[in-house]
Design brief:
The chain has helices at 22-95, 170-173, 209-213, 228-237, 240-249, 258-265, 274-279, and strands at 2-6, 9-13, 112-115, 130-137, 140-147, 175-181, 183-192, 197-198, 216-226, 280-288. It has 291 residues and is of the alpha+beta class. Strand 4 (130-137) and strand 5 form a beta hairpin. The relative contact order is 0.11.
Length: 291
């Protein structure tokens, strides 16, 4: 301790070595805390990254599921639309069917008959009569329409004995139109008066008395439809013919519903893989013939 006079006042000053300051130790503590704080922040970043990665995986999974669900719903809507177009056209034709002993009616059990429609023709002399036949080929359902022109008071040039064959000039004058794509199965079955189903059409005009007595009263139309995405997959993999044949072979009973047999067979296995199974759907409707 040193006493020093200054301006008549006595002041004390510290002398010798200075005492260690507490700030020196505080600096070491602060440095250690910074290192600890940096290490803790790195852990936080790693944890946050892990959480973010987990959330990203969950989000992508949900998005993928939603996308698959959306594609599935789009395929179902497309299949329903195809079936509705076909069934509505068949219903319209059957409602205008002309049943007479001198007109063809489901010849050889084909889906063909005469209708009270002019048909697709520019002939202004054509009567309101045309022969309509539905044809199935690979993955396409077509409709053939043949209008007729008759001289006044002349009868149609068909046989008077049933069954009447298809019109003689059908092949040369027919107009083919694609009704629907994506149809890989098309079946007709017939309901008789006794309540049984069969693949044979019986007309009340049939010369066979047994058939005429047990005439057909309704037609059951069954469709096996594949979506455009499923059809593209089958074509790209070369499985279209194999799948069509496999589904046709599942129809082991003529009396049971083809729709039920098809839907039971639509499962993964053999020629049917997951994309194919998810894109197939069977439809069915019964149309009663007018009395």
């Amino acid at each position: 301790m040193i006493l020093k006079m200054e301006n008549g006042k006595c002041k004390m000053q510290n002398g010798g070595a200075k005492r260690p300051s507490a700030a020196r130790g505080a600096g070491n503590i602060h440095s250690s805390f910074s290192i600890l704080h940096s290490a803790f922040t790195l852990i936080e970043v790693l944890v946050a990254s892990a959480i973010l990665a987990f959330l990203l995986v969950v989000f992508l999974s949900v998005a993928s599921f939603a996308s698959q669900a959306w594609r599935g719903s789009q395929q179902k809507m497309e299949e329903f639309s195809t079936a509705r177009i076909v069934m509505n056209r068949i219903r319209s034709d059957i409602e205008s069917i002309v049943i007479r002993p001198d007109l063809p009616l489901f010849p050889s059990n084909d889906m063909g008959f005469m209708t009270a429609k002019r048909g697709l023709t520019a002939d202004t002399n054509a009567r309101l009569l045309s022969y309509v036949e539905y044809g199935f080929n690979s993955n396409q359902l077509s409709i053939s329409n043949l209008p007729y022109t008759f001289a006044t008071n002349n009868s149609p040039p068909f046989s008077t004995n049933f069954p009447v064959p298809i019109p003689p000039d059908f092949a040369s004058r027919v107009t083919n139109n694609t009704l629907a794509n994506g149809v890989i199965g098309f079946q007709r079955s017939y309901l008789s008066k006794n309540g049984t189903w069969s693949t044979n059409f019986n007309s009340r005009y049939d010369t066979n008395t047994t058939n005429a007595t047990n005439a057909t009263v309704a037609v059951r139309v069954s469709l096996l439809v594949v979506s455009s995405e499923g059809l593209k997959h089958l074509q790209n993999t070369g499985k279209l013919s194999a799948v069509s044949a496999a589904m046709a072979n599942t129809l082991t009973s003529a009396t049971n519903s083809p729709e039920e047999q098809w839907n039971s067979a639509i499962k993964v296995g053999g020629e049917i893989d997951i994309p194919t199974a998810s894109s197939l759907r069977a439809f069915e409707r019964v149309f009663f013939l007018p009395n």
